[in-house]
Amino acid sequence: LLRCFPSSRWTMVGEPVNLNEFQELAREALPKMYYDFYAGGAEDQYTLEENMEAFRRIMIQPRILVDVSRIDLSTNVLGYNISAPILIAPTALHKLAHPEGEVVTARAAAACKTIMALSFTSSCTLEEVASSCNAVRFFQIYVYKRRDLSALLVQRAERNGYKALVLTADSPRVGRKEADIKNKMILPKLKNTERFLSLEASSDNVSDLEAFTKETKDASFWWKDNGSNLAAFAKETKDASFCWKDIEWLSTITNMPILIKGLLTREDAIKAVKVGVAGIVVSNHGGRQLDYAPATITVLEEVVQAVGGRIPVFFDGGVRRGTDVFKALALGAQAVLIGRPVIYGLAAKGEYGVRQVIKMLKDELELTMALSGCTSVKAITRRHVRTERERL
Ligand code: FNR
């Protein structure tokens, strides 16, 4: 029965009161093809569901009789003060949810005083997003087979004031999302594909970019493989040979701190520390790549212990409640990122919707902290939660 979570559990009346209700609003607002693209996961969607389900098996252990008349949610991420430990994860193609796309999301991030990680597969250029808001922005990348083009993109991000590079490392290939296959999910406006890939020509090296985008627009390119042109594009262009030793190359082409996103084991955590990155994001890509990868909250502590405080550990996957944020912080995350709920807010109510989603999570986190006897983010400790193993 619990597996029905989350969509079937809520019947909405009036204004949304939690993030799950925003999902329902988005389902109503979006064409089925786009809703499925955003909401779906790989294959059996086991990991997608488990990300949320695993949070439900962790209990919170409150302390009583603490003065909680003032609660401070603020925190610091890579030197930037933000209003709460809740960041916006990089997610693709916001223009499928809202005509203005990522610039709207970025404005909401600025209004909420938090950080937005712009996706490599953004439907606005990184320049458009940079000029539309004063939020602290990170830029997420996959590395192309064409390293020179990846380098160009990284340099553009740096020039436009992006503060960190998030290397997503969990998808050398793209997971099979069966709803996209059935829906024959394709990008609209193929003519503008380069915009969807952040590659729209900037002043430098236009000829290279033109050649590349022409190549990728070649008709033979689409409808291969599993019927989704995004998946086909990724397979053709991503460098599946990119590995640990190549992180060094990445660090030679940028001064931005590098975060590795998509890590799930102690072995990889140790490697990440060794190669000298500035931080890691424990993530399974919201269950969209490797199905049956563990729920992120179940491996967070293992990774945190392996890192031993040497670099910050961030977390994403299945965060839908303030209690989820609290649990992730208690298990050692410095902050969490949220993916789908931001898109649902954007689809349902534009910038206001994204702000509402973040505000709801912040309000819930604040209440959870008050009821648990924690007056600041730092006051949340491992002893404030009890995992399934400890309950046996
Ligand atoms: C993603 N995610 C993602 N990650 C990334 O590094 N680059 C990307 O372009 C995308 N695109 C993307 C699209 C959509 C529609 C979703 C739902 C997710 C993964 C994302 O950053 C994050 O890891 C998950 O979304 C976190 O899980 P929740 O919060 O969606 O449960």
What this model shows, in words?
The protein is an alpha/beta fold. The chain has a single domain, classed as Aldolase class I (TIM Barrel), CATH 3.20.20. Helices cover 42% and strands 12% of the residues. The protein has helices spanning 19-29, 32-39, 46-55, 102-111, 126-132, 147-159, 178-183, 193-196, 206-217, 229-237, 246-252, 266-275, 296-307, 322-330, 340-372, 388-391; strands at 59-60, 75-77, 80-82, 86-88, 115-118, 136-141, 164-168, 258-263, 279-282, 313-316, 335-338, 385-386. An 8-stranded parallel β-sheet has the order 4-11-10-9-8-7-6-5. A two-stranded antiparallel ribbon has the order 1-12. It is globular. 49% of the residues are buried. The model is unreliable at 1-10, 190-196 and 198-226 (pLDDT under 50). It binds ligand FNR. Ligand FNR binds next to loops. Residues 11-390 form the FMN hydroxy acid dehydrogenase domain.
